[in-house]
Amino acid sequence: MDTSGTAKAIVASFKELGIEFEEDQIEMVRTPEQQTARMLVPEEHLPGHAFHTYELTSPDGMVKLKFEHNVCGRSIYAEVRVCSHSLCSSRAVAHVRESVAGRRRAERRAVSERESRLP
Questions:
Q1: Where are the domains positioned within the chain?
Q2: What whole-number distance in Å separates Cα of residue 58 and Cα of residue 26?
Q3: Within 13 Å and on the Cβ side, how many CA atoms surround 22?
Q4: Segment 67-115, tens digit of pLDDT
């Protein structure tokens, strides 16, 4: 089966923001059993749904972001797709990057302070 257009578009958005993410990293969950068990798709919406989850982890493993959008049915799919792309704005990612960088600076200062106290 083909990779969903939504998943491809989100990966493209991540790449535009400088996040390393390739289409071959997309895991497709296509069987009804997996969709209900792993993705928690309600059985009545198996014929038409769009459940997507994207996880980003910082290189040091200290920060993990999870983006999830779950759509039951097809009628509102286009609206939700637009909203999900808005969540990946450069401002949001820049804020996260600043937060991670600030945490790293604080951790380095703490290590330096501990080391300076060593005999």
A1: 5-87
A2: 18
A3: 2
A4: 888 888 876 655 555 555 555 555 555 555 666 566 667 777 777 777 7
pLDDT digits (tens, 9 = 90+) for 13-49: 888 888 888 888 899 999 999 999 999 999 999 998 8
Q: Which two tokens stand for residue 108?
A: 């380095």
In one-letter notation, the amino acid at residue 83 is C
Task: List the Cα angle 78/79/80 in 5-degree steps.
Answer: 95
Residue 116: both structure tokens together: 């300076």
Q: pTM (2 decimals)?
A: 0.59
Q: In Å, how far are 42, 80, 101, 110, 111 from 74, measured between CA atoms?
A: 14, 10, 40, 51, 52
Q: Sign of the CA dihedral 47, 44, 23, 87?
A: positive
Amino acid code (one letter) for 60: D
Task: Yes or no: say if 56 and 19 are a contact pair by the CB < 8 Å rule.
Answer: yes
